[in-house]
């Protein structure tokens, strides 16, 4: 059974850092890119960024709102993807979800988010 | 990259059909067929409903269908049921190799 489990959320002060983890199981982790989304309380979903497979260079893309502050990485030996969140602001308060999409041997261009985790809450206090 | 534009809310009676639009630009929806739709019930994770404009995962009811014309994608729910009451989001790949989500639509079953 495919599972994605986020962890690492909690209460953090504005300006500090926090690292979230996304642990995948039930599938070949290295064949899939990992995407991060977030949802502020009572608001819509927002795309945060994603990391391609190492076969596709392990490169990353970020939303403008987090670029330069958030860093997504992956450890395929542990089946974990991370998002390192630095210089946190109150507007980063949200439930953070990770999801996956398949990367073929030639591309990562079809971002079908077919499985999602249940999310982890990050609260940034000012 | 601004969010794709969706109506804030759409409603219908049981058995009716409704359509949710998702309008972007030539840099996202108009540039590719990598458009997907997600359903989210309150407090739950999003769920894939449609991918590549009009394809449906095997576990999703054929009451859900998708289409695209120019810079606008659409999700149609036929034979509306109470369980379809949820928020719906479109997602598109962009020419900048990033992703962009729709603003979200709340579907209410009257």
Could you characterize the architecture of this molecule?
- The complex is a heterodimer of chains A (126) and B (110).
- By secondary structure, chain A is an all-beta fold.
- Chain A is 0% helix and 51% strand.
- The termini of chain A are far apart.
- Chain B is built from no helices and nine strands.
- Chain B has strands at residues 9-12, 18-23, 35-40, 47-50, 64-69, 72-77, 86-93, 99-101, 105-109.
- In chain B, strands 1, 3, 4, 7, 8 and 9 form a six-stranded mixed β-sheet that branches. In chain B, strands 2-6-5 form a three-stranded antiparallel β-sheet, with no helix packed on it.
- Chain A binds chain B through residues 35, 37, 44-47, 50, 61-64, 97, 99, 109-114, 116-119, and chain B through 1, 3, 32, 34, 36, 38, 40, 44-48, 51-52, 57, 87, 89, 91, 93, 97-104.
């Amino acid at each position: 059974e495919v599972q994605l489990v986020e962890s690492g959320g909690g209460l953090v002060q504005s300006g500090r850092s926090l690292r979230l983890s996304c642990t995948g199981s039930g599938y070949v982790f290295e064949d899939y890119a990992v995407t991060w989304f977030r949802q502020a309380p009572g608001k819509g979903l927002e795309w945060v960024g994603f990391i391609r497979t190492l076969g596709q260079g392990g490169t990353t893309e970020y939303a403008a709102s987090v670029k330069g502050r958030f860093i997504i990485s992956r450890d395929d030996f542990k089946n974990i993807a991370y998002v390192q969140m630095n210089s946190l602001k109150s507007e980063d308060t949200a439930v953070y979800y990770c999801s996956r999409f398949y990367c073929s041997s030639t591309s990562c261009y079809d971002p079908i988010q077919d499985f999602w985790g249940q999310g982890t809450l990050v609260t940034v206090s000012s | 990259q601004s969010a794709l534009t969706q109506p804030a809310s759409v409603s219908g009676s049981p058995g009716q059909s409704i359509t949710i639009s998702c309008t972007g630009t030539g840099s996202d929806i108009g540039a590719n067929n990598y458009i997907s739709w997600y359903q989210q019930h309150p407090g739950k994770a999003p769920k894939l409903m449609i991918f590549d404009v009009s394809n449906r995962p095997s576990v999703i009811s054929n009451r859900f269908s998708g289409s695209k014309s120019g810079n606008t994608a659409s999700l149609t729910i036929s034979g509306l049921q109470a369980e379809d009451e949820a928020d719906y989001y479109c997602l598109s790949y962009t020419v900048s190799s990033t992703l962009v989500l729709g603003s979200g639509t709340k579907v209410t079953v009257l």
